[in-house]
Amino acid sequence: MRLPKTRRRAAGRWAPLVTAAALVATVGATATGAPAAAAPQQNTAEFRGVNWADPRDNFADDPVVLSGLSTSDDYAHTYAKATRVITAFRANLGANTVRLPINPYTVNGPYWDAYRGVIDAATRQGFKVIVSYWEGTGARKDGLIDDIRTYRAMWDTVVHAYADNARVYFEPMNEPHGYTDTEWADIAANWLATYPDVPRGRVFVSGAGYNDHVTTVCADPRLRGTHLSLHHYGFWKSYATYDQWVADLKERIGDCAGRTVADEFGAPMTTGLDYNKADPSDNFVNYVQAVTDTFRELGMGAVYWPGLRTDDTYTLQKLVGDPERPWLATTNQSGADRLAWAWGRAKPVTR
After folding, report:
1. What values do phi and psi take at 133, rounded to 5?
2. What pLDDT score does 31 carry?
3. Which residue of 71, 77, 79, 251 has the fewest C-beta atoms within 10 A of its own C-beta?
């Protein structure tokens, strides 16, 4: 999700929903300490992926429908289309991970039977799948859980369906910017307490705010053993040098790179920019080169936004061919090269 990274949390937005204290009571007992967990990950470079998004940026008050899919498709049709898209992500980019949105309308209603075809198609091809909750639109687009009852029912269903599938990872909320850092850590801790059978290494705890820093969730002992999710975008600054972008990114990560996956980062891909050539005057070239160098240096997983989203200038892939038998084409080869470089799978690119 790409939005201006300005903290917005007015009391009026908070009052109609649920306070952090009420959520603790509703979702589960407050975690007083983390259960025994595996040692922190040394790196997260195994996550080499892209986001597959609804053209509406995943914000919806109805089911999310990924680019190229339709609510009229049944499970078999969805599975067949998704198999081709996932195959194209691997063939064109070398990806092994896809991040997918969910919301209560998708999971708690009839579309869930078909939507599972996307998750199943990906995992059966060996992909890791990160499933993340998105909020609704309008007044609901405030960085808060829209409705705790339907949210809980959604996660009950998803966890029940995929807890035993080691390739599926759970991200309790995308960009929880309506909460303070402390409130968000409380909510994440209680998600873990509610689903204690989910291995912590298969949970992505979003960074606070717009996923824009992981230092506070990293420091919380209740969240020990989880992966951390970071978002980072070039439009956050009108201009920064390469070195300034490196410094900005590393400040948001702190000493937590070993647990962190950048599961959203992106830049314009359909406007003709060449990210393989040095151009110190261009903010986005500086940004892309800086973050991909840094992800590689730190051994961090990187999941580009978006791998596929119709009518998004940031999309790295576009749909081509018969809509019933979709395939993908790369929109910017230099962007694909830099992504491969971040993943540690390409020859060095000269700045």
Report:
1. -80, 130
2. 35
3. 251
Do 106 and 158 meet the contact criterion of CB atoms below 8 Å apart? no
Backbone angles phi, psi at 119, to 5 degrees: -60, -45
**Which residue is listed with tokens 């998708």?**
106
- Please report the sign of the dihedral spanned by the C-alpha atoms of residue 44, residue 117, residue 142, residue 24: negative
Q: What is the CATH number of domain 39-342?
A: 3.20.20.80
Q: Which two tokens stand for residue 324?
A: 């019933």
Q: Is the peptide bond before 323 cis (omega within 30 degrees of 0)?
A: no
Q: Is 153 exposed, middle or buried (0-12, 13-18, 19+ CB in 10 A)?
A: middle
3-state secondary structure of 105: helix
Residue ranges per domain, the chain? 39-342
Amino acid at 210: Y
So what's the pLDDT on residue 347?
64
Q: Which residue has the tokens 């950048």?
A: 262
The neighbouring-strand residues paired with 264 are 231
Tokens matching residue 141: 């687009």
pLDDT digits (tens, 9 = 90+) for 114-145: 999 999 999 999 999 999 999 999 989 999 99
Cβ atoms < 10 Å from Cβ of 197: 7
- Give the residue among 47, 118, 59 at the shortest CA–CA distance from 83: 118
pLDDT given at position 41: 55
Per-residue DSSP letters for 210-275? HHTB-HHHHH-GGGTT-EEEEEEEGGGSS---HHHHHHHHHHHHTT-GGGEEEEEEE---SS---T
In whole angstroms, give the CA distance from residue 48 to residue 124.
17
**Do residues 336 and 318 make contact, with C-beta atoms less than 8 angstroms apart?**
no
Collapsed DSSP state (helix, strand, coil) of residue 202: helix
Distance CA 132, CA 28 (A): 20
pTM equals: 0.90
Burial of 93 (0-12, 13-18, 19+ CB in 10 A): buried
CA–chain centroid gap for 154, Å, is: 18
Amino acid at 59: F
Tokens of 347: 């020859």
Q: Which pLDDT does position 10 carry in this prediction?
A: 31
